[in-house]
Design brief:
Elements: H1 2-103
């Protein structure tokens, strides 16, 4: 009888262990699915990050081009201003010459 009782307890322990192992297998399977989903999301995030980095590079290149264009425009504007100042000076001298010529007796 004692042997039978011990055998029944051992069988019950084995059954409990099998249930625990089954539960662990289920948990491991769920963890694998979670890790797989995380990997997939990480890949998506990585692709988004790469796209954002590319967009940032494109924006920087466009910004650099605009900076160069603005510098050129400022150079042209400076040349135009200098030319206008020279023309104003010439016109001023001509006005003085015209005034002097008007006052001269003919």
């Amino acid at each position: 009888m004692a042997d039978e009782s011990l055998l029944v307890k051992i069988l019950e322990e084995i059954k409990l262990m099998r249930n625990d192992i089954s539960d662990l297998k289920t948990d491991v399977t769920e963890l694998k699915m979670d890790v797989s989903e995380l990997k997939s999301r990480q890949q998506e995030d990585h692709q988004i990050l790469k796209a954002l980095e590319h967009k940032a590079d494109v924006n920087k290149a466009e910004y650099d081009k605009m900076t160069m264009d603005i510098s050129q425009i400022q150079g042209y504007q400076k040349n135009i201003s200098e030319s206008i100042d020279a023309i104003k000076e010439i016109i001023g001298r001509h006005e003085v010459d015209i005034t002097v010529l008007k006052r001269r007796p003919v």
